[in-house]
Amino acid sequence: MDPQGGKAFGILKAQQEDRLDAINKEYLEHPKYNTDPELEDKLQAFKEKYMEFDLNDQGDIDIMGLKRMLEKMGAAKTHLELKKMIKEVVGEMGETISYCDFVKMMLGKRSAIAKIIMMYEDKAKEPEKPTGIPAKKTFSDLP
Asked: 45, 59, 117, 128: which one has the fewest Cβ atoms less than 10 Å from its Cβ?
């Protein structure tokens, strides 16, 4: 096993994070977006999610990265559905989703399928169970 493999991967990830931080800075300074008081937190969350699925560290999410992303969220899609989602985000000519495209989709007004799935990812998680003593019920509470 090559001991430099892990180190090289760490360097690639750090470079990728630097590139995405630079893009996030542009959004933070952009007058169209910088009025949102939660923008910095949103961009940080977008960066983390994007880095998780930019599997080749080339600065884009390809169809396999999108497939894994949606499978992890419990929303598996067919190859044709994935192609349609990418076209919806980047247009007819693109086959990958760049970080800029990803952020524009997430901050934009359009309801792209990928955006909807990611926004409701937390709703798919198991709801927290109530703790403490259950509330008293009366006969009127019964269905």
From this structure: 128
